[in-house]
Amino acid sequence: MYDYNVLCGASSYTKQFYLNEQFEGLPEGIKEELKIMCVLYTEDVGGVLTLRFDEDGTLLFDTTYEEDDYFYDEIGSVLKIKQMQKNKQELLESLETYYKVFFLGEDFDEE
Predict the structure, then answer these.
(1) Is there a domain that residue 63 lies in?
(2) Has residue 45 been placed in a domain?
(3) Structural domain tally of the chain?
């Protein structure tokens, strides 16, 4: 059993974007925003970017790159992720709430 669930990802090597079919119910605008965000990251930095939820519903950014990829920018990767987290904070928080409600079954009723 996995302790996380992949939302989406993009690869500079295959030039492809992946959206987990479990999230096909997201609005088209959000899916398009995720695609743009992930693809721009891989075009700017290189490697592979994966957005996934941990067991608590926190959205995490995972990056990997091939050992012989001398064009991958490790410093740029950290900076780009921080920039995305700042600029897309509302979107990312909404995705975490969505995941917690629809996948983890948490109740967000106000008391």
Answers:
(1) yes
(2) yes
(3) 1
Q: Which domain holds residue 17?
A: 5-102
Is position 111 within any domain? no
Amino acid, single-letter form, for residue 18: Y
User: Which DSSP category does 21 fall into?
Assistant: G
Alpha helices in 46-107 (DSSP H): 74-87, 89-102
Query: What value, to the nearest 5°, has the Cα angle with vertex 15 and ends 5 and 83?
Result: 65
Q: Is 70 exceeded by the pLDDT of residue 23?
A: yes
Distance CA 44, CA 25 (A): 29
Query: What predicted TM-score, i.e. pTM, was given to this entire model?
Result: 0.89
Q: What is the pLDDT of residues 89-111, one digit of tens each?
A: 999 999 999 999 999 988 766 54
Helix (H, G, I), strand (E, B) or coil at 42: helix
Whole-number Å distance between alpha carbons of 57 and 40: 24
68 belongs to a structural domain: yes
Using alpha carbons, list the distances in angstroms from residue 20 to 16, 23, 34, 45, 84. 13, 6, 12, 23, 20
